[in-house]
Amino acid sequence: MKHLLLALLACFTFGAGHAQLTPFELSKDKNYTATYHEVIAYYKKLAAINPQMKLINYGTTDIGYPLTLVVLSRDKIFDPALIKKQNKRVLLINNGIHPGEPEGIDASMMFARDLLKKKALPKNVIICIVALYNIDGALNRGVSRINQNGPSSYGFRGNYRNLDLNRDFIKADSRNTLALEQIVNTWNPEIFLDNHTSDGADYQYVMTLIETQKDKQNPVLAEYTSKTLSPELYKRMKKSGFEMIPYVESGRSGTPDSGIVAFLETPRYATGYTAQHNIISYITEAHMLKSFDKRVYATYNFMQALVDINERDAKLIGELKRKADEQVSRQKTFAMNWQLDRAKVDTITFKGYAAMYKTSEVSGLRRLYYDETKPWTRTIKYYDNYKATETVDKPLAYVIPQAWGKIIDLYKLNNVVMHRLAHDTTLDLQVYYLGDLPVPTRPYEGHYLHTGVKVIPVDGKIKFYAGDYVVYTNQPLNRYIVETLEPAGVDSFFAWNFFDSVLDEKEGFSSYVFEEVAADLLKKDPELKKKLDDEKAKNPALANSAQQQLTFVYRNSPYYEKTNRRYPIGRILTDTKLDFKK
Q: Range of 477's domain?
């Protein structure tokens, strides 16, 4: 009987240990990434035997499944509000935004298990892991990334609506994005990590890194990340055996020897969106041509380094986040667009491969290849400086008509403080009229993006209605508020077509009817007559077109709709007493 019990115990122990291995670890060649159902099943089993771990589902993604958040808490506290009261940090890790770049999915499964198994959960940091973000794409498995060395099968970049979810964080077209934004604004992390796989050039490194571009990051946070956190991450990754370099965006010649350019993550990207919330943000980019197992282990080591430093600097990071929020609440001027500053150049030591050329067997023309038998180490240029090309001074407050419901919903989701007018109210404020816009020639992520937006500010009296929203710009979320509501912003709501209906002219005229009215207007209004004559002198096309002249008179007459091309968001510039709903 004793031998039987021992045998049963041995079987149970082996089974439990075996069950804790991930599908990646169980695969013979370590070239396998877990399916969505394997990921969720694995975490459920892990949570069932570990009270320091909890699975929480958020929303419903476009494929119909909820977004699963894995929460690791040493003290078994899973209430975000209580965690903040206890002055603990929150690290949010996102995996599988592009399911064909799955290293983070498998690395996080092992990482969560090992922290629990080794009783190594940090005391002052709660770790939140999005198990698999683009569930839709993960279910659509295949081999679509032809330029990537494994795994043997993986998910597709687009989701069920064929959206690239890493371009969706302002427009929020997908339900996946709404669920992730709910997670961000519920847990309020101080640090965010988005795990990816690279594209592009060949070189010796397994891991590269994108960090929030320092010139557009809040200065309080930029000082810490550029001088402390990031250098320490590079140091620890080198010590782990996975030396790291900044993400390789090639220079003008297209190869790293010409220099590399720091990536600029605008708000459409996950880390650009989190940066608007004063969250320190990173993207790992494991190199596509290195074997999948090395990429997984490099991602694992990066997460370990990030957790360890976060634990070490927990109090400091919390204080820096508080200072950044305070600073942004008072900030007056905000950048709308950025441009690489090629006049400022840094240098880094880089380990690459010789870029060579030979005749293509496909085209018969010259083609690029990298010769891995010819490694090199040298100093190259690193373009890591950006300058603002356009700025705007914030108003005292914005007024958003309640008709623009998607904006109101997104602002509520992002915890923007808003007030509702108690009565119909005519306000003295500033509005924009939209100038001529370049015509987009092709769609991008389901939209025809507006670029090069020019606005004409006009002061005047505008009527708003009971229930319309007033948003004061004295909030830690000012960057999100200003960068989305100012139409010139590179990823503003206007850029993403939220307001295109104001570009339509709703009324017009019949020429034969308006002829007499126009003639009478010109007789009674000498200034209008002079304005027309001056324009005809400058514009031969207008001078030779009766229709264009009628249109000119119409658009400068009392009959023309004043809302055409008027941006509907009001800008309150002076302190104004308003009555709000209780």
A: 388-505+567-572
